[in-house]
Hints:
Layout: H1 3-6, E1 11-14, H2 15-19, E2 25-30, E3 33-43, E4 47-50, E5 53-56, H3 63-82, E6 89-96, E7 100-102, E8 110-113, H4 117-122, H5 130-141, H6 149-153
Parallel strand pairs: 3-6, 4-7, 6-8
Antiparallel strand pairs: 1-2, 2-3, 4-5
Amino acid sequence: LTIAALGPGWEVVDLRECAGTEPMTYLAIGPGGVFAVTVKDHGRAKVSFAGDVVQIDGRRPKYVQEARENARLAATALSRVAGISVPVMPVLAFAGSGVITFYGMPKGCIVSAYQELGRVLNSRGERLAAKTVRKLYAYADHPGTWVNAAFDRYEWSKSD
């Protein structure tokens, strides 16, 4: 994901490098807000959505859940260092030439073709001032922000 694809006023952080997420996962911070972008390449395969269920070639990968988890991880880390609640919107972007069909959109998750990502994120308006974008980018780009990311992701269970 490049700043050129989003335009001026945007900053991009590779979440794989800083938070240890899957490859092709980014944090895009710009005028429209903070977005955890999870990119999936589906080649020429058709992608079908029915709410949170994604179907590709008869398989049902947990892409929507993964995108939400990436957003939750980023929101938790940024909120901790910023000292205020930083909402992060999950985005699922599909790279590939196959058709994407919807029989109901997933709730609270933006879905887009990768080529359309700049247009989709820029259509969110001006929610953040340039100063806020720079500040959030400084937090997101600092390795200390992500030190506890794997720890935050760990599911604690009670043992008898």
